[in-house]
Amino acid sequence: MTDNPGGKRKISYLILIVMAVPLLIHLYVNIFAGYGYFRDELYYIACTEHPGLGYVDQPPLSILILLINRNLFGDSIFALRLIPAIAASLTVFFTCLTASRLGGKTFSIILSSAAVIFAPVYLAMNSYYSMNSIDILLWSVSFYIVIRIIQEDRFPDWIYLGILIGLGLMNKIGFLWFEFGFFMGLILTRERKHFVTVKPYITLAISFLIFLPYVIWNFQNDFAHLEFIRNATSEKYSALNALGFIKNQFLIMNPASAVIWLAGLYYFLFNKEGRTYRMISIIYITAFIILVLNGHSKAEYLSPAYPALFAGGSVFIEMKTFEKFKWLRYAILIPVILIGVMIAPIVMPVLKVENNIAYSKMIGMAPSSSENKQLSELSQFFADMHGWEELASDVSKVYISLPEEDRKRAVVFGWNYGDASAVNFFRNKYPLPEAISSHNSYWLWGYGDRKDPVMIIIGGEKEDYTDEFDSVEVAGIHSARYSMPYENNMKIFVVKGFKNPISGIWNRIKHYE
Fold this sequence. Notes:
Elements: H1 5-32, H2 39-48, H3 61-73, H4 77-80, H5 82-101, H6 106-117, H7 120-125, H8 131-152, H9 155-171, H10 175-188, H11 199-220, H12 224-234, H13 242-252, H14 258-270, H15 278-294, H16 307-320, H17 326-347, H18 353-363, H19 380-383, H20 388-400, H21 404-408, E1 410-414, H22 417-425, E2 435-437, H23 441-445, E3 454-458, E4 469-478, E5 490-498, H24 502-508
Parallel strand pairs: 1-2, 1-3
Antiparallel strand pairs: 3-5, 4-5
Helix pairs in contact: 1-5, 1-6, 2-3, 2-22, 5-6, 5-8, 5-16, 6-16, 6-17, 8-9, 9-10, 9-11, 10-15, 13-15, 14-15, 14-16, 20-22
């Protein structure tokens, strides 16, 4: 901590300044740049129409937050992405507080904030609404509370940590890695002394009680989330491997920032001043080992564990360059900013589409997908921000073309939650019936009380449906140049006359992934 009131005020003002940077970046993109709604955003909006204690692919906290946000600010892209912009700012805030707690001064505040602001994965995660921006924030706050516990051992902090872990689990179950790491840290460090007190058990109990509703929901729904994880690991993430996971840590966190977080690991593990907080590195290492052993983990799963390492590494670098080698500070800071700025257009929608494609080619960064899917001109991340309104419009044209009696019993079926959610979202703009799907939570929401609907099916081939329906007709084609290839040039069918009970078909087509 700083030694005088003037120094504390200076640090406080500096933190306020640097935390404003990511907020302004994301607000600018949300207002003046950006593409369309992201696939998952449309699905999350659909989830808010079905409030509950859980969903197939996620716990309910982020959906509850989105529901409140929608009621307050509406459904515009700016309103939708306001929360991740604020989360980006608060993540920087708590990273800087952590550095200050560790004794950091001006340079460590600047360096740690730059490492967070210009980490490509954080730029991407905070540019659209999902549970990920909330997850990163909750990890950074929890690290800060852990350091306060080590320094001051105040009982309320143990309660706060229990609440944070519980909320983290109700946002994304990957927060278990933090909880496992925390208790491993208690066991492996001198903080094990707390096991003879009630404090760690209070933390565990609070976190479990907050998480319990989602556990109960899974019991009631045949452990749907576990089935989702198992299928995702064995199918769409099957091409991922441990070596790629490790290599990509350096890429997604900004190659120039590696020296900072590696210094942070060293600082917490071996440095005389830093090893007091060895628990921080144990949390990171525990999460790292779990994800490597999984074998098919996405590199981004570990990204929430880095803010504390950035804070510790920045303090260590500041300390070692205090009297000599001050030039080294700039040799570390400047590349972090420059590389971050260079990569930013690849990971957030800053440029127009044509310029984005040209820029990606110029710097030699080809479009990528973590789901082993075919790509066209854009990365999967950007492609999934295109084509949704066009899809709704094309389906609407098919719906309008139906005879009046058919329209009364029409329903749209999308094979994935993106297609179904796009149709449902744009029903307020285009004449459209309700859309259903067999994908993830849509399957649980079911098909209603329909017995013999006229179904508008998005995608597939005619022969896919002739065994199940008496009449199968191609009624339209959906095209969207910049969407994912499997979402482009899709046939839109009108099918009638179920040959088998819809309940049996529904059970066969369930798709959790």
